[in-house]
Hints:
Elements: E1 3-6, H1 17-23, E2 28-34, H2 36-39, H3 44-63, E3 68-72, H4 75-86, E4 90-93, H5 99-112, E5 117-119, H6 142-152, H7 193-205, H8 211-214, H9 227-232, H10 237-243, H11 249-267, H12 291-298, H13 304-316, H14 321-334, H15 339-349, H16 355-366, H17 381-388, H18 393-398, H19 430-445
Parallel strand pairs: 1-2, 1-4, 2-3, 4-5
Helix pairs in contact: 4-5, 6-11, 11-16, 13-14, 14-16, 15-16
Amino acid sequence: MTTVLWFRRDLRLHDHPALHEAAKDGPVIALFVLDQKLLKPAGAPRVAFLYRSLRALDHDLRQHGGQLVIRRGDPVNAVPKLVKEVDAAAVHVSGDFGPYGTRRDEAVDDALGDVPLVRTGSPYAVSPGRVTKDDGEVYKVYTPYYRTWKRHGWHSPATSIAGRVDWMSGIDSVDIPADPALPKGLKLPEAGEDAARKAWQKYRKGELSGYGDDRDRPDLDATSHMSVYLKFGALHPRTLLADLGQGDETYRGELAWRDFYATILATWPDSARDYFNPELKGMDYARPNSKAFEAWKDGRTGFPIVDAGMRQLLEQGWMHNRLRMIVASFLVKDLHIEWQHGARHFMRHLVDGDLASNQHGWQWTAGTGTDAAPYFRIFNPVTQGQKFDPKGDYVRRYVPELRDIEGKAVHTPWELDAPPADYPSPIVDHKEERKVALERYEQARR
């Protein structure tokens, strides 16, 4: 019996439980649907990386005698159409727990009629709904979630069977589109499962041992850059977890954060757009079409660490996680612009843009989300720069106007006798805006 393996956020052939299930019954057709509802909100960097990942997957399938069948349109129509063409007995997928993915899969399931949509595994080490309190309630706080998540555990990586699968080829398929135009100078990481596995092994044998100490230092570039591969499923998180030792607790915890936020979004899908903590929903915000918002997006705020982060986003389609928190705090609490506008800007530019992690990361910083990040925590962009970029190397890397300033003085160029003429002065007084933010938060909580 022919089956269809419908790829989504699992663009790999190794460690793929849904592939194991699909291959049990006979020949397998590999399918990917170009869905405009997902492509339209994504910026050019993420779309380009997706297309490159699809080309890499198609290459890998052809090495085993198969092909990646590409169809365009609404999956509710495209998937049943292919099933009818090849008389498939089942469609196999990795489970999707996002708001759109859940609705889409329910609709496809209905459209398939008697042909089952078989969900096996997910993009997470522990799927949403598996880690709960003793009474079955979902955790809203990360730390107790993490303790239970570790006790619950996860499966070992699935064995590789790609070379033993009876892959079908010769199926009608549209071409994978050409990459959209990318911003000048933007260079994407190499796409595909092979590139992901090589990058992970290189990091595991090198910088991983120092991750706990150096992960907050953007000047050292000590993080793994695995987020983009996890986003598209070129690697499964349990593949990474299987390689971690006792000394890698901090890295393990970061993978748990990913599962935690996926659980929050799956349980409260409205939190993708709305406040997880409604207490602060009525807060007074500035207009998002202001010159200050444009300066933030362009990396021209006059605060070097903020500008470096925003320029890194534009140049690489990626930003160091410490900087994501710094620039988010600056937008919401110094410029008083509502978090959704910053979250949307990130999702347009991030190659690794993940709805659950992005939206809830923004809400955490804004003080409207989960966990113990109180609303009154306001990052000082100067002290954050001095602490996490102590020599100023990160700032000088992305803000060329400041490259002639040595050491930590780069974080306060306005204090120099002759500040750089081509770099803007700070657009706000942080000390004053901090007071304003606290007043607005207190007012909203009354």
